Amino acid sequence: MKITRIETIWFEALPAAEWQKQNPKARQALPNNLWVRIHTDTGLSGIGETYYLPRAVASIVHDVYAPLLIGRDPRDIENHWQNMFALTNFCGVMGAEMRAISALDVALWDLLGQIAGLPIYTMLGGRSRDRIRVYNTCVGSGRHAGDLDAWLTGKAGELAEDLLKQGITAMKIWPFDQFGTGLGGPGNERGDTMVWGAKTAAGTRGLGISNDDLRAGVAIVEDIRRAVGDRMQIAIEGHCRWDLPSSVKIARALEPLDVMWLEEIMPPDNVDAFVRLKAETTVPICQSERVFTRFGFRPWIEKAATDIVMMDLSWGGGLTEGRKVAAMADTAMLPFTCHDTIGPVALWAATHMMINAPNGLIMEIVRGYVDGWYDDVVEDRIQVIEGNLVLPDKPGLGTKLREDLFTRPNARIERTTEESLKVW
Questions:
Q1: Cβ 171 vs Cβ 235: under 8 Å
Q2: CA within 20 to 30 Å of 305's CA: 127, 278, 290, 408, which one?
Q3: CA 327, CA 334: separation in Å to the nearest integer?
Q4: Residues 108 and 142 in one domain
Q5: Quick one: 337 and 365 in the same domain?
Q6: Model pLDDT for residues 360-371, shown as the tens digit of each residue
């Protein structure tokens, strides 16, 4: 059995006005993503996905990794991971290179499951549970386009009540971002920056938060507590927008509200800063998707800099690394969770990981994505039943890319085959 062809597909962004005309209630998400498909001489193919810089990642897939994979046995997943990592780590690997490894790795696990006729969670060692509880990251999209505006405009409590009706008992918001420093430059520090027709959550590090802004952010959380009490768990996303003193101030202000965790309140560039933060607050600290591979997570676990270990499988090392990071966290008696505001293939892969991991805590979704644009990409909708993700007993991931994805006018498809490699 051997790999015979590798495909990538990504989408050119449409002008914002054209997109809004065609999709008045949906953000333009597709141009951020890259999908890969690995074909074999048996007729089976596996799929993977990653997020951010799709053109750059596609180049790495075809120019660097395809020659290492094509002609080889797809079942040798650990060896493939080590080979790809070793080659690009020669020059530094924690960027588009790791995103490419991650997408290819998930595709190889999808193939392995199909070859064996078993779900990925079984290939990983079997189930620790038959479902995983979800929390909703409150982005607005699709038929839930109002979710973001709701909690930003005084209706956080109403949003929490609506989520509870759906059986979702945990939610994530980012109430302090609005007071941080954006990318607008001098004179427009709090201005919004648009990327592909949507406001980016990125910003520089805020050097202090005023008492008025702190109270305004906390008031959003208080609104949820007033409306639904402790029936809703509340995670606070920080998007790496604050310095250490501000982070301490925010964390202490949140302590009476019993939040589920405080996530990425500072950039992950200094682990010791988080050690200091943990010493100053009782709020659980979650760290998170900007840390790549087991090597990246090691100091966070060894220095007790985090209470919850969160990984993004689609850019932090795939399932091969994910199970190692989960095991490291488990050794330290820490819960493990996966990040996902990425795409449908990433969500399916992460759910397999969370069904398997003994320390799997909870899984992130965006309900507007699951009920919306994810249906444009994969053949099957992942099931959310009473606030839990449930996977079918199907081989591999359990879903496939829609064939019409490859025929859309703004699709950019590249293929590397055994024949094309002979040109080299």
A1: yes
A2: 127
A3: 10
A4: no
A5: yes
A6: 999 999 999 999
Tokens 């589920």: give the residue.
260
Q: Do 180 and 264 belong to one domain?
A: yes
CATH code: domain of residue 34: 3.30.390.10
Q: How many Cβ atoms are within 10 Å of 124's Cβ, its own excluded?
A: 21
Domain that includes residue 54, residue range: 3-118+401-423
CB 35 within 8 A of CB 10: yes
Q: Which uninterrupted H or E stretch holds 87?
A: helix 77-89
- pLDDT for 167-194, tens place per residue? 999 999 999 999 999 888 888 888 778 7
Q: Which two tokens stand for residue 322?
A: 């994910």
Report the SS3 class of residue 239. Answer: coil
C-alpha to C-alpha distance for 20 and 26, rounded to whole angstroms: 8
Residue 277 CB contacts under 8 Å (≥ 6 apart), including other chains: 244, 247, 248, 251, 265, 266, 285
Q: Quick check: 231 and 208 in contact, CB under 8 A? A: no
CA distances from 276 to 207, 235, 306 (A): 17, 21, 11
Q: Is 152 helix (H, G, I), strand (E, B) or coil?
A: helix
Residue 396 lies in a domain: no
pLDDT attached to residue 55: 95
Note the pTM of the prediction, 2 decimals: 0.95
Strand order in the sheet with 3-11: 45-51, 33-40, 3-11, 411-417
CA atoms within 13 A on the CB side of 382: 31
The residue type found at 170 is: A
Residue 187 pLDDT: 85
Do 328 and 362 reside in the same domain of the chain?
Answer: yes
- Give the pLDDT confidence score for residue 408 in this predicted structure: 84
The verdict on residue 267 lying in a domain is: yes
Q: Tell me the C-alpha distance between 246 and 239, whole Å.
A: 14
Q: Name, in order, each residue with C-beta under 8 angstroms of 408's C-beta and a sequence gap of 6 or more.
A: 11
pLDDT at 149: 94
Rounded Cα gap, residues 36 and 51, in angstroms: 12
Residue 37 confidence (pLDDT): 98
